[in-house]
Design a protein that fits this description.
Chain lengths: 481, 648
């Protein structure tokens, strides 16, 4: 049962490659994604289960389980994957080589599901690398030298990061009670206390390694290179979901291997918190100065995902609540933004921010979605981004170290101001270009606007009624503390 | 019923905003009727709220839940805003007759109404903040509506100040929530009293953040920069609302923080008093210098906000005996809303007739237009505080509260020099108000007519517009002549929310001692007008008079300070960010260079550094050379490891 959401897209993806007829292939991709999403939902409803796939050697096993965190992630992934698949269908007609893209796109979903369902580090690592490898073709899709270089850069950073994490695990595995993930940490605390400095180093290295995927400094550089050259649907999932894959791996390491108890108050926690805050600032600042729209959005992702990491690393229930909310809301909003950027490219071929004067009059629907998502990213009520930022900042203020707490709030607010600075002018000049700018209305088709509007509506609705999601997160929290 | 009414008042405008576009497609008349009916319904609901006070709680909505309550100041401001909305709906049809893209204005206009209701009816600071932000963003459309360069630039300033203010407010609320655990108005005084001594500093900091946020909206110095820019470029009905009621949302927030967090904190009162006084004087001076009709009115708004802030501070100083200060504050808010409605709508009429707001162009346009002249005169008299108008009552109350505190201090034997200065600045600002209003009135209605003006005297004002200005001007007089029956009742019920003390005994509004204050002010005003305005701000020319722009253009807080500072900070920040973000890339580049350049035999095709291949050399050379290189690298690694071991 646990294998279904993994195998379905991976095997199905192979057939997608071979299918030449466009209509059938599109239908196949949609059905495969929908079926995987359905399987994931079924798993969510069912009680927790686990299964062993195979034993590699000794205690090294490949195993899957569906705990509540896995369920949470599966739903998030499926919820993003479906609309983007709908969007990609039309977008790719302009980008060409649909077969290749859609095949890899479908297979990546399987890798992500595997990542969510992994029961121990080895399985997680396997799916993590699989995810990296499968998404590289999405980045270098266009095949231009720039795209190939970006793809390799992405691959290099991801693999190097994952390698760091794996190296850390070699040390860590000796101190574990059992190899599978368990909420609250699997460390043998007695043994671990004796080697605390070493283990903290290991933790730091592993987090920085996985942080590469999540766009944390110092290995964030792949994001702004990969996003502008990748096709819009690929950027959307890279930014919205794949970076969250890195976050998931970091949650697993922090809360399911080391455990918050062991890490609280350590230098590694503080160092990572400061790294995350630096990333928040750097990402926003660079986005403010960036002229290429998709690159600007990529920098924005760098900054926004580090909000999540900041929340996670506070190691308090409030922080995790804020982090998980931020993760979901950022995924929704950022995907809407990237889809809007893609729609703009399709309709007008504009990639620079300066070209977007009057775009709101040309493509009102797209830009309304863009505006809603932008407000959410800034954190303006009643959009959903506000909710997550409120909880993150509250958690920061409740943090034991007042300095870090206030620094965190200051960075969040500073970053919010800069976010307003780099997103609002696009909206404002899009809708208020001035009297002398004449544009004709030329909107993309409903196949592209519909998924965008879906996500845009979700951004607003989750902001008004975040209750259900909060309850879900509340049931999840006791399991990891 | 009360609960339903509250939710209806807040959410009905949001829902109705959705139908503006579909109705326009049906036909323009439907939409024009629609935008008059909606505020009418809203006003009825607001009036009904007087009879059915209640509370409404939407738990869990927006995370923390939204809370609304009616009664006291909440209801007063709700009724006032609904009234202003209805009154500004009436002149819209004529004002926007030949404009395009009006639907988006109406859309945002209705959404702002809902948001404003949310602000005024909020029962906790969180709800207030949510609607405050919606209001800021929805009202942006008003400022940028005309889309000319001036409007776009003013919109930029407006949005920047709004976003900045909103974020500061958010910080303040987060800190308050952290300190107090609840943001519900009623609970806050108790929670503040229970705080430890050492937490007071933090509370004060939180309060200051809130003050910045609310002050930015209210137009308080030094965040007033958007006000004189946004008002002249917005459509006249929107300017009336921006200055008449939107600034009051900021005041409302300041009132909440002052009365529920820092009821009698001397430091806090000092902050409010100083910033209020500066705002009051600066606004009046700016207004005197201005030669643009709407800019003068905007600066005047700023000055009046200063008057209100002084009242807010006096409420704090007077402690339990603050009834007069509270009444004055509330009534001046009400009066200012109504006065600015009359004046801005009149300014809209002038603009429609002349297509200019410059005093030199509109000079004399108002001659032989008795209706306009009358209402403008009443508005000007009311804002200057001429006895008989409602402005006199509220200004007298505010003045009285300062005098009362000076007496109190003298009674205690403490020097009251500071407050005497404030009193004189108060009176001088009142005089300046009279002077710049006289300047406007004389320029528009008494001067010789400027050239190149169209003569459309007969139908210069549509009937609906006449209703607006006539009715409101009548209200100003009616309120001013029956202060006990009308204004005092309003003030008494509204100041319950401000936790004001009670006042016993009948106030002699028209006694000699009270008239004296107004007369001193008016005398100062007359002196300023005769001695200063007639000689310096007005130059005699062949065909009448000219009003030169004497304010140095470079002396602009925004251009002089804010924009350069923001630019500089952005530069420094970007430098830091680029350096820190470059570390990773630099390492990768260094590694690449090391591997590709030093390793012998590697051939790197140009433009494609990533697909390095080995050049076709004889194999044994290649192996030998690369092996040597690898050995070197391995040696470096070994040395590193050894050093580590030795020094460990």
């Amino acid at each position: 049962m646990l294998l279904i959401p993994i195998l379905l897209p991976v095997v199905g993806g192979v057939f997608v490659f071979r299918q030449k007829d466009e209509k059938t292939r599109n239908r196949m991709v949609l059905w495969l994604t929908a079926a995987t999403a359905a399987a994931a939902l079924v798993l969510c409803v069912l009680p927790e289960r686990s299964m062993k796939l195979m034993t590699i050697e000794g205690t090294l096993q490949l195993a899957l389980q569906s705990d509540s965190l896995a369920k949470f992630f599966m739903v998030l992934i499926a919820a993003i994957w479906l609309p983007v698949a709908m969007f990609a269908r039309t977008y790719l007609r302009h980008a060409g080589r649909e077969q290749q893209f859609q095949g890899f796109y479908t297979m990546t979903l399987g890798a992500l599901m595997g990542l969510a369902l992994a029961d121990n580090f080895v399985t997680l690592y396997m799916f993590f690398e699989m995810m990296s490898l499968l998404t590289v073709p999405l980045v270098l899709h266009s095949g231009t030298p720039a795209a190939r270089r970006a793809g390799l850069k992405y691959l290099g950073y991801s693999v190097f990061g994952a390698g760091m994490a794996l190296a850390g695990y070699f040390f860590l595995s000796h101190f574990l009670l059992n190899q599978s993930f368990s909420g609250g940490g699997a460390l043998n605390l007695q043994l671990a206390e004796e080697h605390r400095p070493l283990l903290l180093c290991v933790f730091f290295v592993m987090m920085v390694g996985f942080g590469a995927k999540a766009g944390m400094m110092p290995m964030q550089a792949w994001l702004p290179t990969a996003h502008p050259v990748a096709p819009a649907p690929a950027s959307a999932v890279l930014s919205g979901v794949i970076t969250k894959g890195g976050v998931l791996a970091m949650i697993r390491v922090t809360y399911y291997l080391f455990g918050p108890e062991f890490l609280q108050g350590s230098w590694a926690q503080y160092a990572l918190l400061i790294l995350a805050l630096c990333t928040v600032f750097t990402g926003s600042m660079l986005a403010l100065k960036e002229k290429v729209l998709k690159k600007r959005l990529a920098y924005s992702t760098v900054s926004q995902v580090s909000y999540v990491l900041f929340g996670l690393l506070l190691l308090t229930p409030g922080g995790v609540r804020g982090a998980l909310l931020q993760m979901v809301f950022h995924a929704l909003a950022k995907d809407a933004l990237f889809m809007a950027a893609g729609a703009i490219i399709i309709a007008t071929n504009f990639t620079l921010v300066d070209q977007l004067v009057g775009i709101g009059k040309r493509m009102p629907r797209t830009m309304v979605c863009f505006s809603a998502a932008a407000l959410s990213i800034i954190g303006i009520p009643p959009m959903s981004g506000f909710i997550s930022k409120w909880y993150l900042a509250s958690a920061a203020l409740n943090f034991e170290s007042r300095v870090i707490g206030y620094l965190g709030v200051a960075m969040l607010i500073l970053s919010a101001l800069m976010t307003a600075g780099y997103l609002l002018p696009i909206v404002v000049r899009g809708f208020f270009p001035g009297k002398d700018v004449l544009v004709e209305r030329r909107e993309v088709g409903p196949q592209m606007t519909a998924p965008m509007m879906l996500l845009g509506a979700a951004v607003l609705l989750f902001g008004l009624f975040p209750n259900g999601l909060q309850v879900w997160i509340s049931t999840l929290l006791p399991q990891i503390f | 019923m009360g609960t339903f009414l509250l939710l209806f008042l807040v959410f009905f405008p949001f829902l109705s905003a959705y139908f503006v576009y579909p109705l326009r497609r049906r036909g323009r008349e439907y939409r024009n009727l629609y935008i008059r009916v909606i505020p009418g319904v809203e006003l009825m609901a607001a009036v009904l709220l007087l009879a059915f006070p209640g509370t409404a709680v939407l738990s869990q909505v927006c995370g923390m839940g939204l809370r609304f309550e009616a009664g006291s100041l909440h209801t007063m401001l709700a009724v006032l805003s609904a009234f202003l909305w209805l009154m500004t709906a009436l002149p819209c049809k004529e004002y926007f007759a030949d404009r395009e893209g009006v639907n988006r204005y109406y859309c945002s206009w209705l959404m702002t109404l809902g948001a404003l209701m949310g602000v005024f009816l909020a029962a906790d600071l969180f709800t207030l903040f949510v609607f405050f932000e919606i209001m800021s963003f929805a009202s942006y459309v008003w400022v940028a509506q005309n889309e000319n360069p001036g409007a776009l630039r003013a919109g930029q300033t407006y949005l920047a100040v709004a976003v900045f203010g909103g974020m500061m407010l958010l910080v303040g609320l987060l800190m308050l929530h952290h300190l107090l655990g609840s943001l519900i108005f009623e609970r806050m005084p108790g929670l503040v009293a229970a705080l430890r001594k050492d937490q007071y500093g933090e509370l004060f900091a939180a309060g200051l953040f809130c003050l910045v946020g609310f002050g930015a909206k209210a137009g308080m110095y030094p965040l007033h920069i958007w006000l004189p820019k946004a008002h002249p470029v917005a459509p006249a009905p929107a300017s009336a609302l921006l200055s008449g009621i939107l600034t009051k949302s900021g005041i409302f927030g300041i009132l909440v923080t002052s009365r529920y967090l820092f009821f009698s904190s001397a430091d806090w009162n000092m902050v409010i008093l100083v910033s209020g006084t500066i705002t009051m004087v600066l606004g009046a001076v700016l207004a005197l210098f201005s030669i643009n009709l709407k800019r003068t009115l905007a600066c005047s708004s700023m000055s009046q906000i200063g008057f209100v802030l002084v009242g807010v501070a006096m409420q704090g100083y007077l402690g339990a005996e603050n009834a007069l200060a509270a009444w004055g504050t509330v009534l001046h808010m009400l009066n200012h809303g109504l006065i600015k409605l009359v004046l801005f709508v009149s300014a809209g009429v002038v603009y429609l007739g002349t297509h200019s707001l410059n005093l030199n162009d509109i000079r004399g346009w108002g001659r032989n237009k008795p209706m306009l002249k009358t209402v403008f005169f009443i508005g000007a008299a009311a804002i200057a505080g001429v006895p008989g108008t409602s402005g006199y009552i509220s200004k007298t109350l505010l003045h009285e509260s300062i005098v009362e505190y000076i007496h109190e201090l003298e009674h205690l034997g403490i020097s009251a020099a500071g407050f005497q200065t404030v009193e004189w600045l108060f009176l001088i600002s009142g005089g300046l108000t009279a002077a710049y209003m006289t300047k406007l009135f004389a320029a528009i209605f008494l001067e010789r007519r400027a050239e190149k003006q169209k003569f459309n005297a007969r139908e210069y004002m549509a009937p609906a517009t006449q209703v607006t200005v006539g009715l409101t001007a009548f209200l100003l007089l009616a309120l001013g002549l029956t202060p006990w029956a009308s204004m005092q009742t309003i003030a008494e019920s509204s100041s319950i929310f401000l936790r004001a003390g009670e006042h016993h005994g009948r106030i002699q509004y028209f006694s000699w001692i009270n008239l004296q204050g107004a007369l001193i002010s008016l005398a100062i005003g007359a002196a300023i007008y005769v001695l200063l305005v007639r000689t310096v701000f007005r130059k005699k020319t062949a065909d009448g008079a000219a009003y030169p722009d004497l304010w140095p253009e470079k002396l602009d807080l925004e251009d002089l300070v804010y924009r350069p500072v923001v630019k500089g900070l952005a530069f420094v920040g970007a430098l830091c960010a680029r350096v820190s973000a470059g570390i990773g890339d630099f390492l990768v580049l260094a590694g690449e260079k090391l591997l590709y350049l030093k390793a012998p035999g590697v051939f790197v095709p140009k433009k494609n550094e990533n697909f390095g291949v080995y050049a076709r050399k004889p194999k044994r050379f290649l192996i030998g050379e690369t092996f040597a290189f690898d050995l070197t690298l391995a040696g470096v690694g070994l040395i590193g490891a050894l050093t580590y071991i030795i020094f460990q």
